[in-house]
Structures are given as structure tokens and as C-alpha cells.
Predict the structure.
Amino acid sequence: MKRMPYDYSKLSGLITEKFGTRGAFAKAMGLSERSLSLKMNCERPWKQSEMIKASELLGFPLEELPLYFFRLKVQY
């Protein structure tokens, strides 16, 4: 099954801004760096509970989840 090509660039930028590295964010999330990498590369889906925890850790309201987790990549 082919995954949707989501654009996590906004999420990645916020992770860097708030945590400095993906590794630090992964640890705060209770994920391995590998697991986070698979999610950020659209190879594994994000669970709803993970998205909620990410919003809490990164400090954005749940209403903004679509901005960080559901932006489709635009392909030219």
C-alpha cells in the first residue's frame, strides 16, 4: 500500500526550534530516533495519540494539527 506523501517540513522546523534535534524530540516523545525518522519520511503513520503528544510538547493547539501533520507534498 502506497502512503500519502505528507509534507512535514513545518513540523520539522518546529522540532528544531523547540528541541534542537530530532533525537531530543524523539526521546521526549518516547520514540526511538529510527521510529521518528520513519514517521517523518512517510514510511510509518503517526498515531493519533502521538500527534496529540507532539502538539503538547511543541506547544501548538490541536486545531493546528492539519498544518503540521496533514499537508500534502506538492509535486511538480
Notes: The chain has a mean pLDDT of 94. The domain at 9-69 is CATH 1.10.260 (434 Repressor (Amino-terminal Domain)).
